[in-house]
C-alpha cells in the first residue's frame, strides 16, 4: 500500500495525509480517525518530513518495528527512484522534462481529496465548541503568516492549560514535556556536529543528517536551509541548480525531501544520492521510534490528552490554511474546476480509490496540454 502511495502521492504533506487517511481509515479500517489524528498531531511536533514520519508512525502502530520499516521504506523508495532517474536526465542533458501539464490535472484532484479528508477528520477532532474555536483561531494565524511550530505548540499549551484549570493533571502528564525534548536534544547534537568542509560523501551525509534532524516547516523553509550552506557557504551548487532540485521535489510524488536525492546525484553520482537520501530520512525513523510508544500513554492522561487534542485541532487548521493557498492557484480556470468537481463526486458518491483519481488527473492534465486545451 505504501509503495503505491509513494508512487502516486502528489501535492505535499497535507495531500499525503489525506491520501493516507483515505487508504488506512476509510478503506481498510486499520486505525480509527482519533488514532490517525493523534499520529498526525505527534508528527507535526517533531522535525523532519511530515508525510514520511506519518507513514512510519502508521507502520509502527500497525505492525511494530517491521511495520515501521516496511511503511517508511515503501513510501520513500518509489519517490527516490523517480527523482534519481530525473537527476540522471538532468546531469546528462542539462534540463528537466516538462511536467506542468501533468500537474495542472493532478492539483484539482488533490484539492478534492484533501477537502474530503478535512471534513472527515474535522468531525472527529472538533470534540467541543472550544476546540472548534481554537482551530479557527489557528487557521487565521496561519493565514496571517504566523510560524507553524508556534501555532502547534501554542494550541497544545492553550488546550492543556484549559483542561488543567478544570481538572488537576495526573503525574503522567509530565511525559508531554519529555516527548519534544528528545528530538530537540538530538537535533542540537546533529547541528553541532557539522562544520565547513570540502565536498565529500561523509560531509554530504552529515549535512543532510542535520537537515533531517532540525528542519520544521514547508518546502520554502527547506529551500532557505539548503541555500545557506550548499550555495552561499560551501559553493557546492549554483542558485539555478538548487531551484531545479527543489522543483523536482515539488512535481514528483512522495516526500519533498527527495530533493536530497537529486542534489546528492548532482554532486556525487549514485553514491552521493544514496548517502544524501540516507542522511535526510534516517532521523525520521529514530524520532518516531522514540516518541511513537508515548502517544497512547499521553492519550490516557487527562491533561496530556487535552494537549494532544489542541495539537490535532491546530494540525487540521494548518492543513486547511495550506489548502486555501493551494486552491487559489489550483482552481483558477474552468477545466480545473471541472476536474475538481468530478473527483469530488467520484470520491464521495462512488468511493473511488484516491490513488486512481490522482493518476487519472495526471493523464487528463497531460492530454489537455498536448491538445492545447
Task: Tell me about this structure.
- It contains 16 helices and no strands.
- With 373 residues, the protein is an all-alpha fold.
- Residues 168-196 have low confidence and may be disordered.
Structural class: mainly alpha
What does the average pLDDT come to? Answer: 82
Give the overall shape, derived from the CA principal axes: globular
Biggest β-sheet strands, sense, barrel = none
- Helix fraction, binned, reads over 70%
Which spans of ≥5 residues are poorly predicted at pLDDT below 50?
168-196
Distance between the termini: 34 Å
Radius of gyration, Cα only, in angstroms? 20 Å
Strands, count:
0
Count of helical stretches: 16
Question: What series of H and E elements makes up the topology?
Answer: HHHHHHHHHHHHHHHH
DSSP strand content: under 5%
Detail the topology: elements first, then pairings.
Elements: H1 2-8, H2 13-27, H3 33-44, H4 50-93, H5 100-125, H6 129-143, H7 148-166, H8 175-193, H9 201-214, H10 219-233, H11 239-251, H12 259-291, H13 294-300, H14 302-330, H15 334-348, H16 354-371
Helix pairs in contact: 1-4, 2-4, 2-5, 3-4, 3-14, 4-12, 5-14, 5-15, 5-16, 6-7, 6-14, 7-14, 8-9, 9-12, 10-11, 11-12
What distinguishing features does this structure have?
373 residues, mainly alpha, 81% helix, 0% strand
Put the structure in a nutshell.
By secondary structure, the chain is mostly helical.
